[in-house]
Amino acid sequence: MKIISVMLIILNIFPIMSFSAENSMQGIVSTVKKKLDIPEYYTEFHSDIKQSATETLYNMSWRGENSKGGGYVGVTADELGRIIYYNNYEYGSFEGDYKLAAFDYGQAEQIAYEQLKKICPEFAYSVRPKSRENYLVRNSDFYQIHFVRFENDVPYYDNYIIATVNARDNILSEFAVRWYDIINFPKPQGIITSEQAKSMLKKRIGISLECITDTTGKASLLYSVNKQKAEYINAFTGEINNTNLTWGKYFTGNTIFQTRAENRVAAGDLPPDLLSVTEVINGIRAKIKIISGYTLKTHTTLTDLQDNYYYKIQFANTQDSIINVEINAKTQEITRFSLGEDYGEDYGIHEQEALDKAFEFARDLAPEKIKICDMGEINKVQAENGGYNYRIMFTRYDTGIKYTDNGIVIIISAQSGRVLSFQTIWDNTLPDVRPDITEEEAFQALFSKGEYSVRYITISKSKIKIPKNVNDIDVRLVYDFLPEVPQNVNAHTGEVCYRNFVPFLKDTSEVFLDIEQHPSKKAIKTLLSADFFDYDKYFYPDNDITQAQYFNWLYKAIKNYVLYGDELYKELYQQSVLEIQEREGDATITFENAIKYAVRLLGFTKAAELKDTYKTNFIDEGAINPELIGYAAIAQGLGIVGGNAFVPKRTVTNSLAAEIIYNILIPRKRGENEN
To answer: By the 8 A CB rule, do 587 and 603 touch?
Structure first.
């Protein structure tokens, strides 16, 4: 069973309470049991209490076995006996199924909500399911439903319930709650209109060009809304509201630059114009005073995709303290620097002091680069071994364009103020790119794709940078795009897209525009809703499918795993689905062979090859290769092929392949067959 327990840690999903209520474990257990249907044979019970400075959590579990197997129920409750985490797992012999589930997302949503109202009514009646398209998963998978808190008919996305329903049954198997006990939510009366808010967004927050390397390795432009600091348009005044959240349990944002690709270079392959290691060490000592007292320990040579050469040098002192430095072997520019971690729970320096130290260090090591960077974005980050440091990012700006993948990153100890690391990521071969659409066109694209509406946001109260208690936060009513809509526009195509330039398609009505009148529409759309196909504008239903593509679909359908090329064919050989001499990756495939391979991958090869055993109901049975009659009969019995004609020699198209896959995956009752 797939559980979401890891998500609890990542999202800090347990609620933060603003009160202290004394209650006994016995009383909490009694309250919890009234909400649950604990089987009588779950006789093994365990419990414990987790106490922190801000909350008390009660953990309890029941488990047991009977003749059919057994199961487990785990619960975490807060001080009021409200269930904020629940896990119900029934043991059994189920090992998964390649079939699609017998019920869809919409039905799973109803199952989850009805059971949430019984198990955690204190939260359930204040949430609504987050809107999304209906879809299907496999029996071995699960539906995850996201319920959002609503107050005054306005969403508060920071409070929610994530619920899981197994696709093979009709029970709520797990859920987790994130909830702040906030009472006063401003009512949306007298607020500015959406059109006024859009105007304020353009004027006060704006949109900027960013240069990013796309999925093909090409530098391309994005228009992105300027919300680096979590800024929103106040729904009452039109002014900018900032959350003031920089770290802590109420903050999840973080940005780092991509690391360049690099390779180690052997001594015999070095170009002759590189400086010697001795020369660059002298340059390092002149620029970084802390190196004094350290001696050379090791060095290696690296090169990147732009044919830049670097020495990676390690220094050590008598206390085994290590300093690592990377330096350009031709220009002596220091590109990376790091020393042993220095952290602490006490904050010896403030943000502005850390920012000043970082800027000074960057100016010493990269004076020309820092001139064309922004003023620095600072975040408090947790150090590897505990405690906190400051991470400051100076992002490159060139001719008014932000080069998101380029810049300088510096980490400063929050306790001692020492520079712990320095890194530059800088592409010297970026093209001279220009946008093909205007800012106004980019805004219109965003507004056409995503609803710009009111929502509540969490803000930290004045000067409280690390909220630990619900008393330290408040809510504001603001305008914003729906969370699922990316706030980026491809500056060349005008498409709303993600930051990897993949277009954002709002719903399946924008996908496979060429199948609306096609007889295979139902099969293709069902597979699309099951995430079997990737979203694309066109499906090309009547194009012939290649053998390789058919096997890719077939393997994904039956094995629920994606393989390509040699790896795919290797598996097909090993499973006796295909002979080596039958491999014709780019060739077309006949229907009778397509069915043969499907039946083989399903594990019916021996049965299908029994001689003089099978007879089909197909009127054209005589046209089928006599060696494949058994495969056709089994396919008919399994419901993979319907109707009264087999038409064995026809070439398989994309739509016909989709029909085969659909008939393999769709669940049927015993003896049921589609015509």
So the answer is: no
CA atoms within 13 A on the CB side of 86: 28
Give CA–CA dist 316/415, Å, rounded.
23
E strands in 31-116: 44-51, 56-66, 69-77, 83-91
**Structure token pair of residue 308:** 């830049």
CB proximity list for 282: less than 8 A, separation 6 or greater: none
Least confident of 42-51, 85-94, 568-577, 624-633: 85-94
Q: At residue 342, does pLDDT exceed 70?
A: no
> In angstroms, rounded to a whole number, what is the distance separating the alpha carbons of residues 81 and 64?
24
pTM of the model: 0.76
Token pair, residue 439, equals: 């800012």
Whats the size of the chain, residue-wise?
A: 675
Give dist(CA 3, CA 146) in Å, integer: 15
Residue type, 601: L
Are 149 and 162 in contact by the 8 Å Cβ rule? The answer is: no
Per the CB < 8 A criterion, the answer to whether 220 and 403 are in contact is: no
Give strand ranges (E) for 307-418: 309-316, 322-328, 334-339, 377-382, 388-398, 401-413
Q: Which helix (H) or strand (E) holds 149?
A: strand 142-151
Chain-centroid distance of CA 263 in Å reads 29
More confident call, 609 vs 261: 609
